[in-house]
Specification:
Blueprint lengths: L1 H5 L5 H13 L1 H24 L5 H9 L6 H4 L23 H4 L1
């Protein structure tokens, strides 16, 4: 509760409810991990772009991947895999998912 109150500047009642939700809601962990992964991805992209960094460009590249997983999007910030975050429409793979697995 202290973190929500002191770091997020929440009122005591709201901080307590948020702490309880984080304790008992299993999806809270998934949300928190995803948020941290996204922030790291943005930080890495910002370091790579330097002075050319644009939050809008980052969002456009990220959202251009649709519902891709973090493991696939992770290459978005890497010069080694620029095709993952190309500005062109994503390539449609005709291979059914059952054959991929």
């Amino acid at each position: 509760m202290r973190v929500f109150r002191d770091e997020a500047f929440m009122e005591e009642g709201s901080a307590r409810r948020e702490a309880e939700r984080g304790t008992f809601d299993p999806t809270y962990l998934v949300y928190s991990v995803g948020k941290l992964m996204l922030l790291k991805l943005r930080r890495d992209y910002k370091e790579q772009q330097g002075a050319k960094f644009s939050l809008r460009a980052f969002h456009d590249r990220l959202l251009g991947n649709g519902t891709a997983t973090f493991s696939r999007i992770g290459g978005c910030c890497s010069a080694r895999t620029p095709a993952i975050c190309s500005t062109s429409p994503p390539r449609v793979d005709a291979t059914p998912h059952s054959e991929v697995l």
